[in-house]
Amino acid sequence: MDLHPRLTGPVVTRPEAPRIKEAAKLAKRSWRTKAGRFLVEGPQALREALIRHGEVRPAPATLPSQDDSSRLVPAGAILDVWATAEAADRNEELLDAARTAGVRIRQATADVLATLTDTVASQGVVAVVERLDVPLTDVVTREARLIVVLSQVRDPGNAGTVLRVADAAGADAVVVTSSSVDLYNPKTVRSTAGSLFHVPVVTGVGLPEVAELARARGLQVLAADAHPPAHDLHAPWDTGLDMSRSTAWVFGNEAWGLPAADRAGCDGAVAIPLYGRAESLNLASAASICIYESARTIHL
């Protein structure tokens, strides 16, 4: 097979190639956790990853092997990238971004990349990236104005969509509790559309820990929950809720919302008024409305 003039060879043609086999293990949550790395698929996500990589590794460097235990790799650093020749032809600006970031893209066949993705039709670009999460105390600070917390959210698409909304609304961070879906699930990563590389993220913490620290740092902790008693999002003054305060929003499970204990651990619950005949809103829609209401009042 001919080598594309803007990709690095030799061309990877075997799924059994050592680095491909190691990368394929990242499809499993347990291996992602152990390795501290995850897979990024598609030009859009990789474009944002390259920007982040350029920020954390401004100069080209020899990347460590997949089994390197030194872990002296910055969060968000790109460790490997593979692309098909066809994808390279379609994404010349991506190749330029890779060169600017000092990242070499290795050429691979479509069959090889298919072993690294769970999509029906691969977009022809896959990367291995170092995890991005930061400690809770780094983001829940007295300067933080808007924190988004996902508790027992199980759907990867919903989690990724809420993170994308948080990014658009200028949130300070997104916290994904230990009871929620893995933030680095390939479906979650895809659904963030690159926003994963923009917003500080925290994983593996409990909701009580988040709520306690948020209150200690001066944030109010609000549960998005329609069950009474609850403040009306569109008339918060009627019940004394100050939406201009720094807020940590807590969003619960898609099917059953927040358990009573989780709701009790918040400072109050807020309901979105329904003016039509819909019985309820789905998680991503409800989260979008609440997050943007806080963003609107914060930025007035």
Automatic annotation (TrEMBL):
Methyltransferase is among the record's keywords: yes
InterPro entries: Alpha/beta_knot_MTases, Ribosomal_eL30-like_sf, rRNA_Methyltransferase, SpoU_MeTrfase, SpoU_subst-bd, tRNA_m1G_MTases_N
Any GO CC annotation of this UniProt entry: cytoplasm
UniProt xrefs under Gene3D superfamilies: 3.30.1330.30, 3.40.1280.10
Domain RNA 2-O ribose methyltransferase substrate binding: 39-135
Classification via SUPFAM superfamilies: alpha/beta knot, L30e-like
Species this protein is from: Brevibacterium jeotgali
Molecular functions per Gene Ontology: RNA binding; RNA methyltransferase activity
Protein name: RNA methyltransferase, TrmH family
Keywords from the named record: Methyltransferase, Transferase
Gene Ontology biological-process annotations: methylation; RNA processing
Superkingdom per UniProt: Bacteria
Family the entry assigns: Belongs to the class IV-like SAM-binding methyltransferase superfamily. RNA methyltransferase TrmH family.
